[in-house]
Each structure stands twice: as structure tokens, then as C-alpha cells.
Amino acid sequence: MRKTKEEIMDTIFKDIYSNWKSDIPELADAFEEVQFTKGEQLTNNWGDLYLLTEGMMGKYDKTCPVRYVLSGEPLLIPNSRHNFQFRAASDTKAYVIIRQALHAINQSNSKFFEFYTYLIDKQQQHIDYRQQLLSTPNFDKYEFVLKKYPYIRTLIKHKELALFMGVSVEYLRQLYRNGF
């Protein structure tokens, strides 16, 4: 049985702001469903918020992957000038709310600001993950990545995974040959 939009949102938002349904009920109606095919880029509109329901997205600084977004996670496009690109790593379904709609809810509902603050904190946790990955010793990086992204090898190329991990492609090949 397919989950409703509100059930999906509740799953994603429960760790961010558990009272979102009662405090910000207009949020559910503001999201629209979108779909992306593997390799398709997001329009990259500043401040838009995506909630992935199926698939995986990648966030790239030019061509270097800096984050992957899994089903059940939010993706907030930075609300300022940036060099990031966002691309579907697989066929992906999501809900999106545009920045203008977020601003309208903020103007009409005083509880929204608290929700948005928690959302920003959640985004920071994803940034912190990559920093932690890059500071992890090379021999532990692959296992560290697989704990969070168990199917990543089936979705991206070895070169991209090596870039994300901050290791050479040859080092990654050695890990594969040694049974990782």
C-alpha cells in the first residue's frame, strides 16, 4: 500500500519537528510531487525544499560529490549564490516546495521559523558527515560510507565514489580486490 503525502512527510519531519502537523498544517498542501530520471538535474532554484520519497540525489561542487540524499531525507537548496549542482543518482521521486511558498508560510505562521531552524540544523548534520568522512583514515572510509549508503556502489561510478571519499580511484580498486 502506497503511503500518502502526509504519511511520508511525517516520517521525514518526525526527527526535525514532530509537531509539524498540528503547528504548521498548511505545510502538507504546499508540497508538489516531482519525478527525476537518473542523471537529470534539479532546476537549482535557491531556497527550494525537496523531500525524497524514492531514489537518491547527489549534490556536487562543480563535479565533486559533496553529499548524497537518500529516500526519506530532506534536501534544502542553499538560499544564496552557490556553485552546487544537484542530480538524480537514480530514478527519483520527491515532494518539493518552492522558496516563495516557504516565505508565505513563514509570514502567516509564527511556528514555521522554529521548524525551519531545525531543518537548517539537519542540513548541517549532512555537511558534518562529509567533513567527518574526509577526516576518517583512508582504510576506514569505505566502511564508513557503506554504513550510511549501503547501495551506493550500484548507483554511482567508482571514480565518483573515490572523489566523495577523498581517495584515489586506484586505492578504491585495491579495496574492492581485497574483498570490501
Written description of the protein model:
By secondary structure, this protein is an alpha+beta fold. Helices cover 47% and strands 21% of the residues. A four-stranded antiparallel beta sheet has the order 1-7-2-5. A three-stranded antiparallel beta sheet has the order 4-3-6. Strand 3 and strand 4 form a beta hairpin. Helix 8 crosses helix 9. The longest helix has 24 residues. The chain is elongated and about 55 Å long. The model has no long low-confidence stretch (mean pLDDT 92).
Low-confidence runs of at least 5 consecutive residues: none
Total helices: the number is 9
Widest β-sheet, arrangement of strands: 1-7-2-5
Per DSSP E runs of 2 or more residues, the count of β-strands stands at 7
Query: What distance separates the N and C termini?
Result: 36 Å
> Order of SSEs, N→C?
HHHEEEEEEEHHHHHH
What value does the Rg take, in angstroms?
A: 17 Å
Strand pairing plus helix content: what structural class? alpha+beta
Query: How large a portion of the residues is in β-strands, by DSSP E?
Result: 15-25%
Q: Tell me roughly what share of residues is in helical segments.
A: 40-55%
Taking all residues together, what is the mean pLDDT?
A: 92
Biggest beta-sheet profile = 4 strands, antiparallel
Shape: elongated
